[in-house]
């Protein structure tokens, strides 16, 4: 058995840590020696209202068991730099950022107002941007950082009534993928989780016997592992639920090359070859870069010119 992963000396910020998944993370980090900023504005599932008790109760629980934590009540949307300031003022550094705070405003796309769309994007995506951006200079300077963005199966696959949520959640994937590239040489690692767990977010959606299997404590081990200093994993997306953990990655079909002149590269030519464009059976590729960054893209262009 390997030795216990310690977070002694590390400062961890968990957003939305007054309940649900975030609370479990905060308690577990504190148990392992981290100093924790417990951020939560204490609102409803839809994002309305404020209640300091949500964060205070978690801080109280951590302190009672001998851990170190401080509360922050700012909204991640608009409050990102204040949240980091709380970490710096109390603990002098920031090592780990868990972008976890979230709300739902589910409604079918036909009925979704611009406000309902923007509010959800604002909390999930802009909130993660703000907090990560405020923490970034400290991470660059200390040449260490770990960031987790919380996506969702809804963001990876889409979900009825969740156009706002799904768009924000997939945005968090793009954000983490880019931070992982910009942060790599500073040992700043960014990953994405797409969890399914019992919380107030799922209690009205899933049946009780399923919820029983999906305790949020089954999500925390991956979050802690990915943010430990010994873990070098970055730029990865993990789907997890009820004790099952898997990785998600993109797949590109082998594709079809067309001679790029106006006689041959037409909508009709694409229609004719639609099957090959979408054929994943012959050597599908697992891209981690845009094709223009791939050496073999030049080969493709050369081949196309020679057709
Ligand atoms: P939750 O509602 O129990 O927890 C979310 C917390 O975020 C709440 O305590 C809330 O007060 C806080 N919060 C909301 N808006 C905030 C803001 N603007 N600033 C600061 N705090 C704010 O839900 P949860 O299930 O624990 O969700 C945690 C994260 O996991 C969310 O991002 C959610 O979208 C994501 N997620 C959850 C599931 C699931 O199955 N529970 C599935 C996929 C994704």
TrEMBL record:
- Lineage: superkingdom: Eukaryota
Q: Can you tell me which residues the record assigns to a coiled coil?
A: none
| Leader sequence residues | none
Q: Which residue ranges does the record assign to the Ketoreductase domain?
A: 10-199
| Localisation per UniProt entry | Peroxisome
Query: Assembly state and interactors?
Result: Monomer.
For this chain, the family text in UniProt reads: Belongs to the short-chain dehydrogenases/reductases (SDR) family.
What does it do? Second trifunctional enzyme acting on the beta-oxidation pathway for fatty acids, possessing hydratase-dehydrogenase-epimerase activities. Converts trans-2-enoyl-CoA via D-3-hydroxyacyl-CoA to 3-ketoacyl-CoA.
Q: What is this protein called?
A: Peroxisomal hydratase-dehydrogenase-epimerase
Q: Which organism is it from?
A: Zygosaccharomyces bailii (strain CLIB 213 / ATCC 58445 / CBS 680 / BCRC 21525 / NBRC 1098 / NCYC 1416 / NRRL Y-2227)
């Amino acid at each position: 058995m390997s030795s216990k992963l310690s977070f002694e000396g590390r400062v961890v910020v968990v957003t939305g840590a007054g309940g649900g998944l975030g609370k479990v993370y905060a308690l577990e980090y504190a148990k392992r020696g981290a100093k924790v900023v417990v951020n939560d504005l204490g609102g409803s599932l839809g994002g309305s209202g404020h209640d300091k008790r949500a964060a205070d109760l978690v801080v109280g629980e951590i302190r009672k068991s001998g851990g170190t934590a401080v509360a922050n009540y700012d909204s991640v949307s608009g409050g990102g730099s204040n949240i980091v300031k709380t970490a710096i003022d109390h603990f002098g550094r920031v090592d780990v950022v868990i972008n976890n705070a979230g709300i739902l405003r589910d409604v079918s796309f036909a009925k979704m107002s611009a406000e309902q769309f923007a509010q959800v994007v604002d909390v999930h995506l802009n909130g993660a941007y703000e907090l990560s951006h405020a923490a970034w200079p400290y991470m660059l300077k200390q040449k260490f950082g770990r960031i987790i963005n919380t996506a969702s199966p809804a963001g990876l696959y889409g979900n009825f009534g969740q156009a706002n949520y799904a768009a924000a959640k997939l945005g968090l994937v793009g954000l983490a993928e880019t931070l992982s590239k910009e942060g790599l040489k500073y040992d700043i690692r960014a990953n994405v989780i797409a969890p399914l767990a019992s919380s107030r977010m799922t209690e009205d959606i899933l049946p009780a016997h399923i919820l029983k299997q999906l305790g949020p404590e089954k999500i925390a081990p991956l979050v802690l592992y990915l943010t430990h200093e010994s873990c070098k994993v970055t730029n990865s997306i993990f789907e997890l639920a009820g004790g099952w953990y898997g990785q998600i990655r993109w797949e590109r079909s082998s594709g079809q090359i067309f001679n790029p002149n106006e006689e041959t590269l037409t909508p009709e030519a694409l229609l004719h070859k639609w099957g090959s464009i979408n054929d994943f059976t012959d050597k599908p590729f697992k891209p981690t870069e845009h094709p223009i960054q791939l050496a073999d893209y030049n080969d493709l262009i050369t081949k196309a010119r020679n057709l």
